[in-house]
């Protein structure tokens, strides 16, 4: 299973509460913070919710 790197590129200030909670659940706190997660359907769904706030890259 591949891994993906998720980077927060925009602030969550002024966004909906469910989007803020999703960003925190992904493990992101500050702008430009990044995490590496397994590429699962659950994570992809969370990324879809906040796609305008994050950048996703595939890690090999």
Structure write-up:
The protein has 60 residues and is an alpha+beta fold. It has one domain (3-59): 2-Layer Sandwich (Ribosomal Protein L30, Chain: A). It has two helices and three strands; from the N terminus they run βαβαβ. The protein has helices spanning 17-25, 41-49, and strands spanning 3-8, 34-38, 54-59. Strands 2-1-3 form a three-stranded antiparallel β-sheet, with no helix packed on it. The longest helix has 9 residues, at 17-25. The protein is globular, with a radius of gyration of 11 Å. The N and C termini lie close together (10 Å). The mean pLDDT is 96.
- Classify the oligomer: single chain
Integer tally of domains: 1
Biggest pleated sheet: 3 strands, antiparallel
The overall average pLDDT, rounded, is: 96
Q: What's the arrangement of strands in the largest beta sheet?
A: 2-1-3
Give unreliable regions as ranges. none
Distance between the termini: 10 Å
Can you give the helix content as a percent range? Answer: 25-40%
CATH class membership = Alpha Beta
- The name of the CATH superfamily reads Ribosomal protein L30/L7
Number of helices: 2
Shape: globular
The CATH topology name reads Ribosomal Protein L30, Chain: A
| Strand tally | 3
* Alpha-beta classification: alpha+beta
C-alpha Rg, in Å? 11 Å
């Amino acid at each position: 299973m591949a891994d993906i790197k998720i980077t927060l590129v925009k602030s969550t200030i002024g966004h909906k509460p469910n989007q803020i909670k999703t960003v925190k659940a992904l493990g992101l706190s500050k702008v430009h913070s990044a995490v590496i997660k397994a590429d699962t359907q659950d994570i992809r769904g969370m990324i879809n919710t906040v796609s305008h706030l994050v950048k996703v890259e595939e890690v090999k």
